[in-house]
Design goal:
Elements: E1 7-15, E2 19-22, H1 23-27, H2 34-41, E3 45-48, H3 55-70, E4 79-83, H4 94-101, E5 108-112, H5 118-131, E6 137-145, H6 155-158, E7 163-172, E8 178-186, E9 194-195, H7 207-211, E10 218-219, H8 221-243, E11 252-255, H9 260-270, H10 281-284, H11 291-301, E12 310-317, E13 321-328
The chain binds oxa(dethia)-CoA.
Length: about 325
Amino acid sequence: MNNLRPVGVIGTGKYVPEKILTNSDLEKMVDTNDEWIVSRTGIKERHIAAPDQATSDLAYEAAIKALESAGMTGSDLDLIIVATITPDSSFPSTACILQDKLGAKGAAAFDLSAACSGFVYGLATATSFIQSGMYNNALVIGADCLSRITDYTDRNTCVLFGDGAGAVIVGEVPEGRGFKSFDLGAEGAGGSLLQMEGGGSRLPASVETVENKKHYIYMNGREVFKFAVRVMGTATIEVLRKAGLERTDVDLFVPHQANIRIIQSAMQRLELPEEKVVVNVDKYANTSAASIPLALVEAAEEGRMKAGDTVLMVGFGGGLTWGASVLVW
Ligand code: UT7
């Protein structure tokens, strides 16, 4: 990527809904307890969308802040990519709904489905469009309302997820900064380990699919855990190699916020000290595509990156998929 136009992050914004669901709230809903949830996952609470909020509403709030921080308005946008597995509806895309709300007339808009890796996939897509010269900027959002597809009678999954949105504006940056490498991948053979079976063309919605809970997330937690630990390590090493960097060059590590134990195993493997790692899984739980941008934007807001710092993002999720990127801030 070195000889191409430098492309990086020129604006950031995030949004989480007001309502907080704590571990003690969940204790009243299913057979679980705070001690189990905190020790197995690191999660203490999560934010849940209001009944009248859909994914595009969360995305809109994050997008407005990102545009403001870039000194832009919707009409300046060339491209909108929304990474999500919980679109407002199958179609039109959530990106098109957002394009209208933002007044981004003329911007191309589409959704991208790569679950928790979706934001990094979106960054790679936007960067390629801009480096090719086709567009000058893009709004890339990771937004999900997992609460809408979570079975709150299933303790195996309902303690894990939350709602939110994180947004960045991607555009040209000064020489030496911006995205240095991406590593995207998939293992489609593992798709059934983490899925929502119902509502698509294979298993359209019916009374039976509703009765059989086919419109909720199903996850084989143990198998996904093993996949996560493996690819967090391999993708990180590969994306550093592609950037021509060593693990000691990383100033800030921004991992997908699914489980503190998965983050800790990556920290150990990379020998990263705590101060170089962004962790907010305790406050937001696993927000799928919103997880990495929420962590990135929060770190930016807290002043944890300065210009020229090397930031490494890495995520994994349904598909199964993974995505990693090295970004010089
Ligand atoms: O972004 C998407 C990617 N998804 C993930 O990253 C999730 C990856 N997986 C995980 O994070 C972990 O596998 C979980 C947190 C989902 C589960 O942790 P675990 O240490 O793998 O637990 P387990 O599934 O092996 O379950 C251990 C026990 C079981 O009881 P038995 O069979 O040993 O009697 C579960 O039934 O814990 C039980 N359990 C619970 N107990 C209290 C499962 N969920 C709960 C709960 N509260 N909420």
